[in-house]
Amino acid sequence: MGAAAARAEVIELQWQDAGRFERSLTIAPGKFAEICGPLEAGQAVQWSFDADRALNFNVHYHVDKDVRYPAKKENVKRLQGDLSVDARQDYCWMWTNKTTAATKLSVTLRRK
Question: Which of 30, 70, 83, 91 is the most buried (most CB within 10 A)?
Fold first, then answer.
């Protein structure tokens, strides 16, 4: 197993040309990967992912000590959706690997 899969990973959301963010990574057993960044009120993001094993997934943000989940799903290999932002927040897309094997994940986020 390579070093990239050996630990939990938090990735800063940095938009590429044409308002896209794409990443392929490996999540070690029992670890997570998270893509986080600020979004402004009125923005919308179309997101999708594909994994080779089922993962627990959520999109979340924090309001004081409260965690809010615009999207949350357990045991999914692929999913897509849209996030509409009501207020400026740091949003995180998060995947948790509860399996006993490393899992490959491909993610695409696109500002609308």
Answer: 91
